[in-house]
């Protein structure tokens, strides 16, 4: 099969086309013939040598895809060869075929293209597990998500809106802010011209913040929270280390938590998949959630896709066309 390998830790140019054997499904696994693969920030971290795949996972990048079931391993009862699926992957999505746990696959929503479906798993698993299960977002709460025009951000805005939350977001240009408003954000803050702390404090503070920026945003997030508010950290684009006065966390009864998705157990991811099918797939069916598509690249130009992603000029998801 055709695939993209990381030839050495480095920039986008280290993503090199190659050929390698088609994977064989283990117990409880399926092999998917990949039509489209999603491109995500963790792929770039892996490429740079900063995010190793978990033990036993494919060394190839790629954490989500959509396609058709090509082979079914022992113990799999739900899926049959030819079924259209999208799936969360432990790795290996930048290839014509990939093996993954059968319980981490979901049916392609009715009426949705495989191109769009490839953009659902990584963002939906991440947003639902952190914003809802970990962060406990409820209807009527003030919710702030940073990076609102990213794949995570566009997904979080739509799901939070569908849950009845008041959605606030930050983005780096007026164009991106307009895109966030169109998705249902009540207020989109251009962080180059406004201070999100001032905006949220004027509203009474955020009950929940979902942040992937880190760095100097951490103490600012604390100031932007309402008393008893929650901060969920899912990435650190500007670094994981900062000085923070925890007296404010104690006095105002704040909760700071976070998670990464890839190292979690197969069982945990299977539970997230079941949650998505129960709660999020109906949002898609009624038109409350749709992936925002930025651009597509052929599999062989994975380097171009990474360059586009790291430019931060994109709005929504970037995909690789495999078939």
Automatic annotation (TrEMBL):
Gene Ontology molecular-function annotations: NADPH binding; oxidoreductase activity, acting on NAD(P)H
Asked whether the UniProt record includes Repeat among its keywords, one would answer no
Any one Pfam family here would be ADH_zinc_N
- Entry-linked InterPro entries: ADH-like_C, ADH-like_N, ER, GroES-like_sf, NAD(P)-bd_dom_sf, Quinone_OxRdtase_PIG3
Where the record annotates domain Enoyl reductase (ER), the positions are 10-320
Keywords attached to this Swiss-Prot or TrEMBL record, sorted alphabetically, are: NADP, Oxidoreductase
Matches recorded under NCBIfam families: quinone_pig3
Task: Kindly provide the name given to this protein in its UniProt entry.
Answer: NAD(P)H-quinone oxidoreductase
Please report the organism this UniProt entry assigns to the protein. Fertoeibacter niger
Lineage, uppermost ranks = Bacteria, Pseudomonadati, Pseudomonadota, Alphaproteobacteria, Rhodobacterales
